[in-house]
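Page 42, continued from yesterday. The earlier attempt failed because a stray header line got pasted into the input along with the sequence. Redoing it now with the clean sequence only.
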Amino acid sequence: MRVEFISGLFNQTNHQPNLPVYDCVPSGEIWQFSKLKDSVIFMDEQRYYLGNLSMILAAIYRNVSLVLLIIAHKLRGSLY
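This time it went through. Structure tokens are written below.
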């Protein structure tokens, strides 16, 4: 799988093992979100429809918030 290869290469190059990769796949009016961690893909079973933009933005916000928490945790660990 191309995403798995790219994420593994990124994590290996940056000495950051096991960092999750978040993904969004818009297909016209339906959006779906997923997460890749340790070679396992977790699919959000909910479908997000373009007509309900607030739900799409909430899902994007959730994923960005999780990424920022992971980055903050990694930075905090590297300061000590």
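Notes: The radius of gyration is 14 Å.
Reminder to self: strip header lines before submitting.
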